[in-house]
Amino acid sequence: MNDNKPKARRDSTHIAIWVNADEKEAIGATARQCNASLSDFGRTLMLGHEPVNALDYATAGTLLKINADLGRLGGLLTL
Fold first, then answer.
1. What are the distances in angstroms from CA 61 to CA 10, 33, 54, 67, 72?
2. What is the sign, positive or negative, of the torsion defined by CA atoms of 17, 33, 43, 38?
3. Nearest-angstrom CA–CA distance, 46 and 38
4. Which among 18, 17, 24 has a CA at the least distance from the CA of 46?
5. Are residues 36 and 44 in contact, defined by beta-carbon separation less than 8 angstroms?
6. SS3 for 15-78, per residue?
7. Sequence-distant (≥ 6) Cβ neighbours of residue 17 within 8 angstroms
């Protein structure tokens, strides 16, 4: 039996923090930029990790699409 499995989130403990409405909106906006829920965003920060900005992934995806388009265009030009 594998005892090294991580615990399910439903078996975890809840942590509550107090913020005002403006702070909650600012935290929520930052979490959305990182494409994360408030829980995931808070957990990442509280464990001392750097959150990854989702805009980086969007930009990389756009660049990959442009690169593929240029490859197809180059293939057509060689015909």
1. 33, 16, 11, 10, 17
2. positive
3. 12
4. 17
5. yes
6. CCCCCCHHHHHHHHHHHHHCCCCHHHHHHHHHCCCCCCCHHHHHHHHHHHHHHHHHHHHHHHHH
7. 42
52 contacts 34 by C-beta, under 8 angstroms? yes
Q: Are 63 and 48 in contact (CB under 8 A)?
A: no
pLDDT tens, N- to C-terminus, the chain (79 residues): 456 666 666 777 888 889 999 999 999 998 988 888 888 888 888 888 877 776 677 788 889 999 999 999 998 888 7
Domain layout of the chain by residue ranges: 9-78
What is d(CA 48, CA 50) in angstroms, rounded to the nearest whole number? 7
**Residue 14: HSE in the Cβ half-sphere, 13 Å Cα cutoff:** 2
